[in-house]
Amino acid sequence: MLHRRKTLIDNLHNPIFCQQLFHRCLRTKSSHGYGDLCRKNKAEKYGEDEEEEGQIRLFKSRGQHLLTNPRVLDSIVRTSNIKPDDTVLEIGPGTGNLTLKLLEAAKSVVAVEIDNRMVEILRKRAAERGFEDRLNIVNGDALKTVFPKFNLVVANIPYGISSPLLAKLVYGANVSPFRSATLLLQKEFARRLLAKPGDSEFNRLAVNMNLVAKVEFVMDVSKRDFVPCPKVDSSVVKIYPKTEIPNVDLDEWWAFTRTCFSKKNKTLGATFKQKRKLMELMELYKPVGLSEDSNLKWREYDSNGDGDEECDSDDGGSDNGISILKGKIISVLESGGFLDKRPSKLSNDDLLRLLYLFNEAGIYFHDQAKGKDTCDAAYAACDDLLSQQV
Q1: Keyword RNA-binding: yes or no (predicted)?
Q2: Is 309 annotated as a binding residue?
Q3: Measured between alpha carbons, how far is 363 from 341 in angstroms, rounded to an integer?
Q4: How far apart are CA 223 and CA 227, in angstroms?
Q5: What pLDDT was estimated at residue 51?
Q6: Which residues contact 353 (CB under 8 A, 6 or more apart)?
Q7: Arithmetic mean of pLDDT, 160-176
C-alpha cells in the first residue's frame, strides 16, 4: 500500500491552503445557495421565488427554508447527544429555531450565517432568552470561513452547499476534529451518502465518504415542516469521522475510484479493455524491476483512433506496449477474482485490495510526481464530492 499522505495532511493543517481549497468548491459548479449571495444578486432576480415569514422575506433560491416543526427540532437535538460542555457548530441558523434549542443543551454555539438580516434576528432572540454570552455568531460564508473551535456539528444546511460543506468537514477533520455531525440534507442526497454496495444508488460519493467517515440514517423530514415549503423532502443523517483512515495515498485512491465508477455497472474486465483507458494508464505505467530507460519502451504504442473501442490483444503483436499492459491488467484482475466484478457491488475493502494489487504490479492511476508538490489531491476530494457521480 502507498505511504504518501504526509503532504496532504500538512496542507490540511495550513489555514491559507484550506481557504483556497474550499474557495475552489464554490467555483466547481453553480449553486443556488451561498454562491449567489456572495455575488450580491439583486432581489429582483428571485421574483416569484420569495416568500414572507412574519416580517422577513425568505428566498428559496438562497436555500432559506426554516424548519418550524418543534417535534422535529427536539428530535434533532436529542439525536445529537449534546453534552453540557460541548461547543456546537451550526451552519445556516436562519432565525434561530434550532439554535435556541442547541443553546439550552450545550455550553456554547458557534452559528455561521451569511444573511445580515438573519444575524440581527438571531442576536435579538438569543438576548431575549439570556443566551447572548453563549452564542458566537460568525457573519460570513461557511465555505470560506475558518471555523472557531468546536467539537460537534448540528445544522439544517442549505441544499446548495451540501457537497462542499461535507468535504470541508470530513476532509478537514484533522484540522478541526469533531465527535459527530447531525445534518439535515436533501433526501435524495442523503440516500446517495447512505448507499451500500449492491444498491442502485451506490456511487463514488458514498465510496469516498465511507473512506473517512461513517454515515447513519436518523429520520426523514417532510417538506411541509419547512417555511417556505421546498420541492422535496429531507432526511437527517449523522456522520462520524473515522479516527483512523486506511493507509492509502488519497490522490491515488480518488483517481482509481474515478476510473472504476465511470461505468459502475460495467465489469472491471470490460472497463480496462477500453483503448482510451489503457492509453491513459500507459503514461503512468511503471514495470516492476525495470529502469527508467527501459520503461520508455513500454510507452511505444499507436495512439491513433478515438480510444473508445476495445483493444485487441492480438493487434500489434507482443511488442506493442499497450497490449502488454492490457495483459498485465487482466492478470491482476484474474488473480484477485475481480475480472467479472462490477464496481457497484464492491465494498471499500474490495476496492482497497484491488488498488493494492494494481500498484504492486506497477499500475498507477495518478501522476505520482505531480502529487508530491501540488494541492491537486486535496482539491480532488472536494471535486469528487461535488460531482455526485452515479
Answers
A1: yes
A2: no
A3: 19
A4: 9
A5: 44
A6: 336
A7: 84
| 133 marked among binding-site residues | no
Residue 371 has a pLDDT of 52
Whether the per-residue pLDDT at 272 is higher than 50: the answer is yes
Q: What rounded mean pLDDT belongs to the chain? A: 79
Residue 92 among known ligand-binding residues? yes
The three cell numbers of residue 352 are 482497497
Instruction: In the chain, list all ranges with CATH 3.40.50.150.
Output: 7-241
Q: How many CA atoms lie within 13 A of 292 on its CB side?
A: 0
Mean pLDDT across 191-208? 94
Q: Inform me whether the pLDDT recorded for 28 exceeds 70.
A: no
The one-letter amino acid at 49? D
For CATH 1.10.8.480, list the domain ranges present in the chain. Answer: 250-365
What is the rounded CA–CA span in Å between residue 51 and residue 228? 6
Architecture (CATH level 2) of domain 250-365: Orthogonal Bundle (1.10)
Query: Is 81 annotated as belonging to a binding site?
Result: no
What is the torsional sign of CA 159, 164, 166, 169? negative
319 annotated among ligand-binding-site residues? no
User: Check: CATH 3.40.50.150 for 7-241?
Assistant: yes
Distance CA 106, CA 85 (A): 6
The answer to whether 86 is a known ligand-binding residue is no
d(CA 159, CA 10): 30
pLDDT digits (tens, 9 = 90+) for 240-251: 999 888 999 989
